[in-house]
Design goal:
Radius of gyration: 15 Å
Number of strands: 0
Helix content: over 70%
Distance between the termini: 11 Å
Strand content: under 5%
Shape: elongated
Order of helices and strands: HHHHH
Length: 125
């Protein structure tokens, strides 16, 4: 991979890590979906979460396209197609997104994604 492309990909991967960190921090006190649905602040947080998750999917998709689908395929422990699909779902079905699904993504899937993205960065360096 040429140097300029490698640096761009690393930068985008670091943006994914930053978004994961923001999501984890902002949601550390969330114990259930009711924490989102019961207050205006909770709904604002839910909206912000959706935008961050959408950004992660959009950024991963851009990396996949920039690398001609030759990079992320090397990390099959992450369901990249589902991440791309989540981005599309949020983009096109925003009002129908299930808050339970958002909480599951945050609680279950972000830490493994972060670990893998950190590995991709290390492998590229």
């Amino acid at each position: 991979m040429e140097y300029q492309l490698k640096e761009e990909v690393i930068n985008r991967l670091e943006q994914i890590i930053d978004s994961i960190d923001v999501l984890l921090e902002r949601n550390r006190d969330i114990t259930s979906v009711e924490d989102y649905l019961s207050t205006p602040w909770g709904m604002t947080l839910l909206d912000a979460n959706l935008m961050r998750i959408q950004f992660i999917g959009e950024t991963a998709l851009a990396i996949d396209k920039k690398t001609d689908k030759s990079l992320l395929v090397n990390y099959p422990e992450i369901p990249w197609k589902q991440i791309f699909g989540m981005r599309n779902y949020i983009s096109h079905q925003y009002a129908d997104v299930d808050p339970d699904m958002v909480l599951v993504v945050i609680r279950k899937h972000l830490i493994p994604l972060k670990t893998t993205v950190q590995q991709v960065i290390q492998d590229l360096k």
